[in-house]
Amino acid sequence: MTKLTDDAYRKAIEKGERFILQALPCMSLRDVVEQLGISDKELVRTAIILEDNSERVCPSFQFDLVNRRVHPVVGYANQILSSVSDQFDTAAWWITSTDTIDGSTPLDLLDKGELTEDLVDTVIHFSQQGM
């Protein structure tokens, strides 16, 4: 069994974070605060906020800009996930396909308007069990 050095581990984490940032279009935290009309302290509870080259950014899919809010089901999922994971792991959950929802990702279902709190609970439950 090969043991990762601290440097190799750090590089692997950075590579994963870059992948997530490339896979999820983001808005600057400043733009989100302006467009939603809420403080960044309020966003911390329900939105994913990532670091990208020392800038705080938020994956755009989380927001309903017309109604100036975090999509309710997104906020629900993020609150559960962020209690047990870091922000990048929470972001990765949205773009990870799972057999629990027929090979789709939670983001796919959100885009189709099919993601519900019950489905979020189911996907999280089974993902925590390693299924």
How would you describe this protein?
- The chain has one domain (7-128).
- The model has no long low-confidence stretch (mean pLDDT 93).
- The chain is globular.
- The chain is mainly alpha-helical.
- A hairpin with a 4-residue loop joins β4 (63-64) and β5 (69-70).
- It has helices at 6-23, 29-36, 40-46, 72-82, 87-94, 106-112, 117-128; strands at residues 26-28, 50-52, 55-59, 63-64, 69-70.
What characteristics describe this protein?
globular; mainly alpha; 131 residues; two-stranded antiparallel sheet
Could you give the topology of this structure?
Blueprint: H1 6-23, E1 26-28, H2 29-36, H3 40-46, E2 50-52, E3 55-59, E4 63-64, E5 69-70, H4 72-82, H5 87-94, H6 106-112, H7 117-128
Antiparallel strand pairs: 1-3, 2-3, 4-5
Helix pairs in contact: 4-7
Strands in their spatial order, largest beta sheet:
1-3-2
Which value, in Å, is the CA radius of gyration?
Answer: 15 Å
Q: Count helical runs.
A: 7
Helix content: 40-55%
Q: Which percent band covers the strand fraction?
A: 5-15%
Terminal Cα span: 25 Å
Mean pLDDT: 93
> How many independent structural domains?
1
Inertia-based shape: globular
Main structural class = mainly alpha
Care to count the β-strands?
A: 5
Low-pLDDT residue intervals, each spanning 5 or more residues: none
Largest sheet: 3 strands, antiparallel
Q: Helices and strands, in N-to-C order?
A: HEHHEEEEHHHH
